[in-house]
What we know:
By secondary structure, the protein is α+β, with helices and mostly antiparallel strands. The chain has helices spanning 2-18, 20-53, 70-81, 94-108, 112-115, 136-143, 159-200, 203-211, 216-254, 259-262, 270-294, and strands spanning 60-64, 86-92, 125-130, 152-156. It has two domains: 2-54 and 164-297, no CATH class; 59-157, Alpha-Beta Plaits. Helices cover 70% and strands 8% of the residues. The longest helix is centred in the middle third of the chain and has 42 residues, at 159-200. The two termini are 26 Å apart.
Amino acid sequence: MLSSFAFLVEEAFKSIRRNGLMSVTALSTVTIALAVFGGASYGLFRLHQFVHAQPERFHIAVFFRPEAPRADVLDARNRIARMPGVASVRLVTREEALEEMRRQDEARGTRIVEALGGANPLPDRLDVRVKAPSQTRKVSAALGDSKRFPEIECVRDEVDVVERLLITSNLVRNVGGALAALMLLATHMVVQNTLRLTVLARKDAIAIMRLVGATPAFIRLPLVFEGLFHGVVGSALAGAVVLFIAAQSSQYVGKFQTPLAETVPAAPSPFVVMCAMLATGTVLGLLTSAMAIRRFLR
């Protein structure tokens, strides 16, 4: 059994060497097709990552009444922290808020704190983060209940912005998934047609093998191994291209010191990208080669 398998693998590589020009053409086509598919899929995935991460940047700002005792503020903070949907609560005291404003004055060259003449009109504040962006409206409405939290003066949220970002995230996910599926189908068609040409170039050899009594499996397996070879090697080369372009793009984006650039999630590791490309190439190589040879064995 093992000797037969080794013989078929050896025959596959002999065939690749004998048909060098056709093999190079097939490998080049597979590499280009998988590189386009991998690059498009990687870009769509990174776009979805970025858009999906934006709602998590926002928090609910809760401002207390200036006359609210610190003990009531601390009690409200503890009650809010136990609310369903709340991930974390950070207290910013009026003293800390004034110090933050002083640092902003120094950075901007303004004199707002100096103009206050030693007074501190700023209230205590809570920065509330929710567990899921979709819960922002519900949590914000609960915090604005004056009967439940009479010490709170106002609640500032960005529910409309968060909801628009969630809609955009879903749109990117759905459209990106559809585009990735279409790209995969197009890649499959290109690879299948390429491998079909390689099989067509050997139709006479296949006919002779059938005449001398070779079984369909004996004829099919070397060609399937060839398709597997093109799929694996082509996907490895395509993965290297995708990783190179991704690294160059990351360096280019990293030069822009903007708030948006700081919120870009970490990219998948090269190992994950390469494994995904190899898995795609392996499956495509096996399926397309099997489909390409099927018509000649009927």
